[in-house]
Design a protein that fits this description.
CATH topology of the largest domain: Arc Repressor Mutant, subunit A
CATH class of the largest domain: Mainly Alpha
Helix content: 40-55%
Radius of gyration: 34 Å
Shape: rod-shaped
Structural class: alpha/beta
Strand content: 15-25%
Largest sheet: 7 strands, mixed
Number of strands: 11
Number of helices: 12
Distance between the termini: 88 Å
CATH superfamily of the largest domain: Winged helix-like DNA-binding domain superfamily/Winged helix DNA-binding domain
Number of domains: 3
Order of helices and strands: HHHHEEHEHHEHEEEHEHEEEHH
Length: 315
Amino acid sequence: MSSALQQGTQSREETMDNRDLLILKYLSDFKNITKTANALFMSQPALTKRIKHMEKELNTQLVESSNKGITLTPTGIEAALFADDALNRFDQLTKRLAEIDNKNLSVLRLTAPNIICEYYLPSIIRKFKKIHPKARFLITMAPSSKVVSLMNNNQCDFGFLRNDFGWDDAGMLLLTTNHIVAACRQPFALKDLSHMNRVAYTTDAYYMKMLDLWWSNNFSTPPHIDVQVSSLDLCCEMVFQGLGFGLLPSVLIPKDLPIHQLVLNDKDGKPIQRHTYLIFKEKEVNSRIKKDFLAFIQEHPFESFLSLHEAAKEV
């Protein structure tokens, strides 16, 4: 063995570690080499050798031997006090890290489009936390196309999709289906929409294209957009207040409101449907919290999570 390698090996052997701290603690507690060696499952010669290594590394005598046994020197007593404190602090650290890990195991990362985040997730989270009070949630609001990307990159545990955007994993549940309707406070027929004021809202490109296609299939002139808003929620409020008609998910129109509706049909005369899915990677549903969340969603009708804003109900 080369000299450099021998020095490196010797250095590693003489570096103090947790076992050395235990040696100092037990020597202080037992005042006996045999009891200390037994407590650490070491032979007495191995323990004696390790004590010599520590004394060499610390450059001080730690233990004195006599016919009555051993005693710690003043520096040995100081080292033992340090060891006891260090072991306690290390124990506190490991417990704290375990707490952090347990909290992380209780975190669910969800991603969903605006409509799911606003109208469904509050109820989902509230009801699930009755079962798992310590559950924590990280929510990312994203259009359905981005939801798939986040899930593919393992940035979320579960994703909610509005329509199928090409999720390849077998983990996919159909949660609910609803229709798109033209909605207005005033009575109207399909032909009336071309000259009525429309309240439009910004949404994902897929949905915008679907609405534009429906319009072009039914009318030769562009819609008269009187109010343009940045969110579906605000669009609903504007329509409910009688500021025009909107093309809205049927599920968001409270049954007790005097809103006139007309279901949008495709060019074949069939109602335009929007499906809502829960997507996940089956192999990643590997913790209790994830399994329980999946079971919770499966066991409850998705419609039961719908929570319409009180302001809309009071219009």
